[in-house]
Amino acid sequence: MHPARPVPATAAARTPAAAVVARQFATLTLAGVAVAASFTNYGPLIPLLERELHAAAWQVGLLGTGLYLAIGLAYLPGGALADRFGPRRVLVAALAAIGAAGCLLPLHASLVWVVTCRLLVGFATGAALMAGSQAARLGRHAPLGQGLYGGATQLGAGLGLFVTPWLTGWRLAGVTGWRGAFLAWAGLALVAAAACRLLLLPDGPRPVRVRHVRRAAGTRPLWALGVVHLGTLGLGQGMAPWLPLVLAGTYRMPVPAAARVAAISLAVGMLVRPLGGALLGRQAVSERVLLRFGSGLACGGMGLVALATVRGGHLTAVLAAVGLVLIAVGVTVPYAVVFDLAGRIGDAHALGPGTGQGLVSAISAPASAFGPPLIGVLLERSGGYAAPFTALGLVALAGLARAVFAGGLLVRAASTAMPADEARLSAATRRLRRQRRFRPRLHRRRLTLRRRAATTRQPLMG
Prior knowledge:
By secondary structure, this protein is mostly helical.
């Protein structure tokens, strides 16, 4: 057993009843499925979009790059908005925006229109992911909530990939094909928005925060945690689109069979993310152990896959399978601890938990947006998988190094929560410093008057 982790003195620290917790987590599961399915559903529709929009493959590829870039840009503002207005309000608004963009998308068969609507989906998705993580912070159930919400997003990602082809045969609101599929997922997002509005706990009074993005960007523990997140979850998202092609090219597997093998990682994530949160919530393992364990598995699995793809041959298939399993577990098991620590560090530095989680997610976002194109460039120039997997291995090694050498620093930084009155005093001090900088004469005049008043004040004599 490990000593109990200190819980920040915020509104999220007051644990509600068990029935309310179950209702909150069930509603967030629906929201996580709707959010994740909304940004993975375009993958199976790429051939239809190329044919009906008369677009080249690289033009349709803008849907993925622009989507993930918009998600990464929305992480930090979305977390700050959740701190400012409350997670339920932001989550409901983001789900409504996803649904509205999905309903508008089938109105015009133009690549520019489709890309514009998908960018709106990306911005709303980034905000929804951060707001949902905030809504899952329910006192001592916070680690479990982070893991369950992360598992729900994995479930939604899988449904978006495997259910979307089936939806293209439906006739919904008079449209079929890719229009009907986008419209169906938009309806799920609107249903999730209504459920969150009716069933989630209302947003309590927000504590006093210092909401300066520049100050958040200068918080060293959040950067260290972001590098760990980059070497685990960012690594998995960066290499996931290439896994079917790697398996098909190295072991001459049919592409559908290779895609099914690669989809095992989604199933593993659905189970391992909640498992990591449950272990952390029951204090069966410490935060440092989970961070180092996940980063080590990801780094070792990447080495095995790189070795198997470079050597080739059927004898290395077992080696590649073991490496893929290690990567799938390693990139998902630290999910709950990363978001739990990020929220607590945000509390400790008076930034807000959403701002802390948003910065950590933004640090890992470039792997999702630029990882697949970078792998393609390295593959084209080198002619083999050695260079791409070496680059990915270096990213995993950087995450492992930060987890090993900065794990204790992260836990200590998250264990010093700043009370609300101290945060208020800190904000007043910074405001006074700004006044001194921009109005020095007025400040010196006030000090002079205060000193004169203190020297002329005489004690009462009996």
